Amino acid sequence: MINLDNCNLDLMDITYNVDSEIFKKFVAPHYNPSDEPVAICVGATSPDEGTVLKEFHKQEYGKDVKIAACNIRDSPGPLFYRLNPYDYLMFNIFQGDARTSYPYLSALEEFNALKEGKGFDLAYIRNPDLVSLSDWEAIFLSTVENLSNEGIAITLIREDDTQKYSRLLRLLNDRRVVPVFSGETGMSFLEDSESDFLIENFHHTLGIFKKPEGFR
């Protein structure tokens, strides 16, 4: 847990730091990036998602990574007006439709990685809203389909969404997509006693997926 008492970091910095720790502790044991890794943030809502991936690859593997981002709504959130680290952006109702192959194939082509046996080394789906499980089933299936043979897809689930996440896992299991890791991270925020400020637990559960052999 992270205590907010006497903390000089703003909320975005704190969130970034927790994401980074989760990647180091949970993701690294399951991840073996290629020599020229490519990644995608699916349903991205903040440039900090890309920053976490950039720093993770640099610190843990000494590698530069090219990162695409696509949304699943009509337009990006206001945080995208900040300087962002993405190499390729797809943000409109058509290009950002992560239920389809378009955003993945478009980014792979942009990164000169659209070739046999190649795909994304890493895909990041952070805090999906899971309102429409049929849509999210399609998004997760498209994401996994466009991984490389050694690639992984990662999702961070809010505490309030864990029951819906369990239902999503059952849907994905019917398509042979099962997590290689799924569990609580044990990382959250403590209440700031001075301000009575309590942050929703955005980091409650982590899922890591790989593409099943012969998938699609």
What does this structure look like?
Helices cover about 30% and strands about 20% of the residues. It is α/β, with parallel strands linked by helices and about 220 residues long. The strands form 2 sheets. The chain has a 7-stranded mixed sheet with strand order 4-3-2-5-6-9-7, with helices on both faces. It has a two-stranded parallel sheet with strand order 1-8. Helix 1 (about 10-25) crosses helix 2 (about 45-60) and helix 4 (about 135-145) crosses helix 5. The longest helix is centred in the N-terminal third of the chain and has 17 residues, at about 10-25. The model is unreliable at about 1-10 and about 190-200 (pLDDT under 50).
Helix and strand topology:
Elements: E1 2-3, H1 11-27, E2 38-42, H2 47-61, E3 66-70, E4 88-90, H3 102-110, E5 120-126, H4 133-145, E6 147-157, H5 162-173, E7 179-184, E8 189-190, E9 205-209
Parallel strand pairs: 1-8, 2-3, 2-5, 3-4, 5-6
Antiparallel strand pairs: 6-9, 7-9
Helix pairs in contact: 1-2, 4-5
How would a textbook summarize the main sheet? 7 strands, mixed
Low-confidence stretches: 1-9, 190-198
Protein structure class: alpha/beta
Structural Rg:
17 Å
Structural domain count: 1
Count of discrete alpha- or pi-helical segments spanning 4 or more residues:
5
CATH first level: Alpha Beta
Q: Termini separation (Å)?
A: 40 Å
Write down the CATH topology.
Answer: Rossmann fold
Residue share in β-strands: 15-25%
Mean pLDDT: 85
Helical amount among residues, as a percent range?
25-40%
| Topology as a string of helices (H) and strands (E) | EHEHEEHEHEHEEE
What general outline do the C-alpha atoms trace? globular
Strand order of the largest sheet: 4-3-2-5-6-9-7
Number of strands: 9
